[in-house]
Amino acid sequence: MSAARRAGQRRREAGMDTDGGSGGQGATLRAVSSAVLAVTRHLSVHEVLQVIVRAAAQLLDAQYAALGVPDDAGSFAEFVVEGISDEQWERIGPLPRQHGMLAAMLHGDTPKRLADIRREPEFEGWPQAHPVLKDFLGVPIRDGEDVIGIIFLANKKRPGGFTGDDEELLTLFAAHAAIAVTNARLYEHNRELTVVAERNRMARELHDAVAQKLFSLRLTARTASALAERDPVRTVQELEQVERLAAEALAELRAVIFELRPADLTDGLVSSLRKHVEVLDRAHETTVRIAADEAVVLPEDQEAVAFRITQEALYNALRHAGARTVEVRLGTRDGQAVLEVADDGSGFDASDTAAAEQQNGLGLASMRDRAYSIGGALTIDAAPGQGTTVRLEVPL
């Protein structure tokens, strides 16, 4: 019988396994699944670490658990705990340094399983407010040859301390944790790259849209100046053109600046969408309006993505569609949140989105990728001369 199966047998004997499956292996898979789910929902690295720590504590029935990710300055870039309240953590003080047992774990190649950590030579420098630790199990989290963190548990809730089977299970779990941490880091890095790319696109739009209008405004002003004495009527016409171009440039500038500004979603998605629509309605000749169900609430990461997709769809409608009216609609249908941006503009052949993308730079692929990142789906209903509807559906 394998170590994992022996651990599962003991759990069943203790009444801890109720699924009738393969015991420790099933518990490990459930714990790993929680961490993987956190990654697929695109939570931050810190949140993924917290999910991993909580799952490890539950898996091995530990009172305390922690996971530290070292930095290059002798401390920890991330350090998350389970079993310690916020008040206790505040009394403990600053993040730990890479010394004592933590240093031994970071620079070691093997797990450490101790009956009483307080008897170890490396047990030093623990804050006075730190909980009393006794039995201890620590495992390095490795990415290839590099130790990217340590996960350790203390004070097994059942008598007897941590066993060899527990060590095997935590080692297996740490291997999956390494994948979860690496994926979360990659996601955050890709998100940063996406923000940079979006800002670069906005900068290009600022140059193309606003700079050209300002150049035209300058030429028109020169023309008006040259005609001022010999053709007053024409001068008035040119000055009216100057006023119109200045108003258009200001509207473009306002719209671009608003899109560059990070979305403030502290008041929720509906409130943020209303503010955005209000600004665009004032800045453009096109009528922009919204009809939203105030009861629709999504997780924070999903709301941020939904807002960005709406921004992109509104931008496309206002810049490329020649629409008279654009409407944002948010509601629910068949257990899903449904967000639509519909316009009555020129539309395009939805069956050939690649050509439309190449011709107009609509960002359709980017919107679809964003939708997929939160477990949603994006559809485009469009036809030449019949307007366009961009629809985002996210399970509730």
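^ that was protein a. below is b, sequence first then the tokens
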Amino acid sequence: MADSTRAGDGAPTLHDVAAAAGVSFSTVSNVIRNHPHVRESTRQRVMDAIAAVGYRPNLVARNLRSGRSGVIGLAVPELNQSYFAQLADDVIRAAGAEGYVVLVEQTGGRRERERELLRDPRLALTDGTLISPLGLTRDDAKDIALGRPVVVLGQPLLDEADHLTMQHEAAARAATTHLIDGGRTRIVLLGAHPAEQGTTASLRRDGYRAALEAAGLPTPDELVVPIEVWDRHHGAAAMWELLRSGTVFDAVFAMNDDLALGAMRALHERGLRMPADVAVIGFDDIDEGRYSYPSLSTVDPGRRQIAELAVAMLLERIMGTTDAAPGRMVAPDFRIVVRESSTV
């Protein structure tokens, strides 16, 4: 049944909202459809009336009329990694506030799976897609015709898509500088991917090196620890191997919080005190870091803002409410969150 008529159960309709707000039915309809040419005072009066009468839109009828499904896709590498699980939660909340449902897919960070998802005919059931790729490359843009709105959560890859990214290099430099300001001179970089350029790992590595160089400190190879999979298991294993090697260090900058938490477990089992013996800082500001012992210092890259902006940018493309050319890139501000693991 259409939104403009009364359902058999007596549910409030747009006519009821219009009467309560003292405006026309077409004005209410324009507010519901987020029409840009509505005065803010009128929009607020209508929204207040919607709340007062308890109106709930018939989304099925609306979507049939608009040709949209009311569903967006979200493709992430792994939901068992805390950052991506919390990102998915933020996206679902932001989309839900706009009346959209989120279909979540896992890619395992595999290039072919990411390519498959962007070309999968099942995505025709969604109005647009948010994707956080790990394996996808710039070369993939040459033979992927998106055919629908896409926002990439990561570094620039697809010319037809908008991008939400992080200030990886600047944030890594700030995190390393925080350790240097605390008197640390032998700082481990945990989680490097040495062969990569222009990726999350390489940008954070560049920020780490820039901070050391600015402080006049060396960057010995033995302090740069490569780890392919950024999870707690590999963080702990890499730290145990570093400890057994006899390498001297007094701080750790981990490429993400999961690596940091794994490393802290190994340091604790070795009997090292944090931060007295080794200061630790991570990246991502996942919830678990607040409750570790000691609590984990970290970089907050603006995850919630990334999710909200990504949904907003995607919906602008879906609804055609932006004249901006595809290829926009936004990088929210970051902040250093100082907790017990890096300060005495």
